[in-house]
Specification:
This protein has about 400 residues and is of the alpha/beta class. The chain is built from 15 helices and 13 strands. It has two domains: about 5-220 and about 390-400, Rossmann fold, CATH 3.40.50; about 225-385, Rossmann fold (3-Layer(aba) Sandwich). Helix content is about 45%, strand content about 15%.
Length: about 400
């Protein structure tokens, strides 16, 4: 039995794909431990994994790590600095706790680290010489494609005093823990090497340029029955599911635009706002629209004809896995990439936030419904997802990093 530790960004779109992988590893007899913020305890423990929690200011996390933007690239230097500060602070806060825990309860044999998250797992792995596999719910980058614009030299980046000071602090933290690497070498390690990527290779930009150490395992959806029961309407009409996920959900004007778009259409609509709208906050509703805080998304998608979402990669691919085309309304650079990929592959459409109106939504819904080519393209991508292997393929990739026990005798 091996010990596998997960260090994941505390956001549903990053955590949820890993849960079915953890469950698969536990079923294979491995010990699994999660280092994750307190709010995810119930979900983690349900997989059979152990849970090492840490406190986190959720409002600050949302403001720092998931700023809304209409750019298709990450280009804001101040946002980069703010993220670095948060990651450094959380690393300093959690690293002693995690080191003490794992020294006492047993060091992991493999770390599964989210490169978007803070660095405690990566530092412990480097310090102890333990292999790491990245956990990436969205796109990976290489010299052929990246969401981040290239930086000519490290020295050029260092010219910004605040960034340079941050880099020096991170370098000091590495040295303090016996990690003999420059900040550039450490960053390279965090963002390269073996990876679990929760999408099929055909959905990745420049997917053919990545080697076999990058395991494109497809979406690894987790059971979300904890969101309650759901019963499909018996009308026989097409059903649209509307959701902006859990990070960009406080947009009642968007949800109201969806209500108005479908009010006169012969569709049923389920809106899941994840607590982003106050009770009655959408005003009077037509009889074909139902509003919930949460729904068991997988159960609803089995009956859906369309999903309108924020462009989250996991959400888009979960919809396509059920044969459902999508309309993506992207909220940040990564989500713009997914919305654009949806259009490129012909499995849905994109609407920019600035263009949202009942008329635009209605027009896009009707155009997708009338396009006979969409169903065939969704069916193709659905098969690509199925062939990627899911949680079993992800567990295989983790196990490949395990060092064989020495022969006895």
């Amino acid at each position: 039995m091996a010990h596998i530790a997960f260090f994941i960004l505390p956001a549903a779109g990053h955590v949820n794909p890993t849960l079915s992988v953890a469950r698969e590893l536990v079923a294979r007899g491995h010990r699994v431990t999660y280092a994750l913020s307190e709010s995810y305890g119930e979900r983690v423990l349900a997989t059979g994994a152990e849970f090492v929690p840490y406190p986190m200011d959720q409002d600050r996390f949302l403001a720092t790590m998931v700023p809304q933007q209409d750019s298709a690239e990450y280009t804001d230097q101040q946002e980069f600095v703010n993220m670095m500060k948060w990651m450094l602070e959380l690393t300093r806060q959690t690293l002693p706790r995690f080191e003490e825990h794992f020294e006492s309860e047993g060091r992991p044999d493999v770390f599964v680290c989210d490169p978007s998250s803070f660095w405690s797992g990566a530092i412990l792995a480097a310090k102890w010489g333990v292999p790491v596999i990245r956990s990436t719910p969205t796109y990976v980058a290489n010299e052929h494609w990246s969401l981040h614009p290239p930086v000519d030299t490290a020295e050029e980046q260092q010219q910004d005093p605040e960034t340079g000071e941050l880099f020096e602090t991170v370098a000091g933290l590495l040295a303090e823990h016996g990690v003999d690497k420059s900040i550039g070498e450490f960053a390279q390690d965090v963002h390269s090497g073996p990876a679990l990527v929760y999408l099929p290779r055909s959905f990745q930009y420049a997917g053919e340029t990545f080697g076999e150490e990058v395991a494109f395992v497809g979406p690894c959806t987790s059971d979300n029955s904890f969101h309650g029961d759901w019963e499909a309407p018996a009308t026989g009409r097409p059903l649209a599911l509307v959701s902006l996920g859990t990070l960009y959900n406080k947009q009642p004007e968007f949800f109201r635009a969806c209500v108005d778009a479908f009010a006169d259409l012969d569709w049923d609509v389920v809106i899941a706002h994840a607590g982003g709208v106050a009770e009655g906050g959408l005003g009077e509703l037509p009889p074909n629209v139902r509003v919930h805080s949460f729904v068991p998304q997988g159960a609803v998608l089995k009956h859906a004809s369309l999903m309108i979402n924020h462009g989250g990669t996991s959400t888009v691919l979960q919809a396509v896995s059920e044969g459902v085309p999508v309309i993506s309304v992207p909220q940040m650079a990564e989500l713009h990439a997914t919305a654009t990929r949806v259009e490129q592959l012909g499995v849905g459409a994109k609407i920019l936030r600035k263009d949202i109106s009942p008329e635009k939504i209605r027009e896009t819904v009707l155009a997708l419904a009338a396009d006979e080519s969409v169903a065939a393209k969704v069916a193709w991508l659905r098969q690509e997802i199925k062939s990627a292997g899911g949680p079993a393929a992800a567990a295989d990739a983790v196990e490949r990093l395990l060092v064989p026990a020495p022969a006895v005798g």
